[in-house]
Design goal:
Length: 174
């Protein structure tokens, strides 16, 4: 990783792996992933506003709605499957309520509408590194086809902008 934090993206079997280093303590980065008020401040690309309701405990549910600058809403919901304070968050992320145009683009990128995904599993880990925190987010998909479509859809770039916003929030919270 460079001194200037940027997202690193890699692919593995049915996975898109995103990494970003933050100049903030692990406990604060973890809290930004589990505190609804903090999540609303950074979740979503630049120019988006986000509302979050979350019960960050194993079995707890969450609802996130991102709204783009054009007014388009991207609702998602899910469940926290695992929470290990300051170390790990595992979430089942469901996005079946995203706009039809978003699904049309996903289907175009997949080349088929058969078994079009409506959910993914996110595994987020937090590790001490270089006086800050290395966040690793693994998005698990049902197939490599789905992984590649989400990559082509710009998931890494969108999360990169979210992580830029998270970096700004963490700096202001320190």
């Amino acid at each position: 990783m460079t001194d200037h934090p940027k997202i690193e993206a890699a692919k593995a079997d049915r996975q898109l792996i995103l990494k970003r280093w933050f100049a903030a303590p692990r406990a604060l980065v973890f809290r930004a992933w589990t505190d609804p008020a903090m999540m609303a401040e950074w979740w979503g690309p630049r120019g988006f506003t986000t509302t979050v309701e979350a019960d960050a405990r194993p079995g707890g549910n969450y609802a996130i709605t991102m709204q783009g600058p054009d007014g388009t809403r991207y609702p998602m919901h899910g469940q926290f499957l695992e929470i290990v304070p300051d170390e790990r968050v595992v979430m089942l992320d469901m996005f079946e309520e995203h706009p039809p145009e978003w699904f049309a683009e996903l289907i175009r990128l997949r080349g088929t509408d058969a078994d079009c995904p409506t959910q993914m599993r996110l595994i987020v880990t937090f590790a001490d590194e270089r006086g800050g925190t290395l966040l690793t987010m693994v998005a698990e998909f049902a197939s490599d086809l789905d992984r590649d479509a989400f990559a082509a859809l710009g998931m890494a770039e969108g999360m990169g902008e979210s992580f830029d916003r998270l970096d700004e929030l963490l700096a202001a919270s320190a």
